[in-house]
Amino acid sequence: MIEILSAAEIARARDTGALVGGILEALRERATVGTNLLDIDLWAKQMIAEAGASSCYVDYAPSFGNGPFGHYICTGVNDAVLHARPRDYALADGDKVTLDLAVLLRGVAADAAISFVVGETQPPETLAMIETTRRALAAGIGAARPGARIGDLSHAIGTVLSEAGYPINTDFGGHGIGSTMHQDPHVPNTGRPGRGYKLRPGLMLALEPWVMADTADLVVDDDGWTLRSSTGCMTAHTEHTIAITEDGAEILTLAR
Helix, strand, or coil here: 48? Predict the structure, then answer.
């Protein structure tokens, strides 16, 4: 299903997006060396509830997962890049953390992810990988406008990732979003320009460049959810929800 949202729904999406962005920034500030991933999940639960919103993850049970996700935020550490279930783990100096959050507020969802490194040790190669995903996201957003094709966004994202030397996995990527978290169209992180669904005002997309240092292959943990690099290499993931406007694209998941 592809939803085209009304002006009133996009206005509500701005509130949802600001909530997602604000929670992620708050969690980033609180996540330090020694922080337990289960505490991050608890903090996310509390902030979502305080805002009168609901989690898109707790009861989420798609075909590729193992039953309901059962947590409020994805917490990927180092080689864990997607769908990472919070677990009893205390962050160590130099750990890369990816926080991926989606919530529903007043009938509209928003989805975003950030990657960062905790502690005094800040490995340059990890920081470079994170920055590459941010630049790729900016390129994808820059290509998003009415009349553009999904392939134009995928090509813009993929060009940045491939020029930086990272292999690209196309099994998981960006997606449509609206009254539910995951909708059509799928937005691969590489593709051919001029192909795919034509963008229209009112369409919302979650764009999410993610990479692994030396492989495009994923493995899944015994929890049935957490996806890691098959070689154990470092990973990074950045995501924003955007709305297609008459003039281009509006980023919705920025903290106010």
Answer: helix
How many CB atoms neighbour CB 194 within 10 A? 10
Provide the residue range defining the domain that includes 207.
7-251
Rounded (10°) angle between helices 150-163 and 124-142: 160
Q: Whole-model pTM?
A: 0.97
Q: How confident is the model at residue 103 (pLDDT cuts 50, 70, 90)?
A: very high
Quote the tokens at residue 129: 């990988």
In the chain, beta strands by DSSP E: 54-55, 74-77, 80-82, 96-105, 108-117, 174-176, 183-187, 204-207, 210-212, 218-220, 227-229, 235-237, 240-244, 249-251
Q: How far apart are CA 218 and CA 52, in angstroms?
A: 35
β-sheet with 80-82: strand ranges across: 80-82, 227-229, 218-220
- Residue 235 contacts residue 98 (beta carbons within 8 Å): yes
Give pLDDT, residue 1: 83
Count of the separate structural domains present in the chain: 1
Residues of the chain with pLDDT > 90, as a percent, come to: 97
Residue with tokens 């998941």: 253
CATH number at residue 15: 3.90.230.10
List of residues 6+ apart from 226 with CB closer than 8 A: 76, 80, 82, 83, 84, 85, 220
Q: What is the pLDDT of residues 145-195, one digit of tens each?
A: 999 999 999 999 999 999 999 999 999 999 999 999 999 999 999 999 999
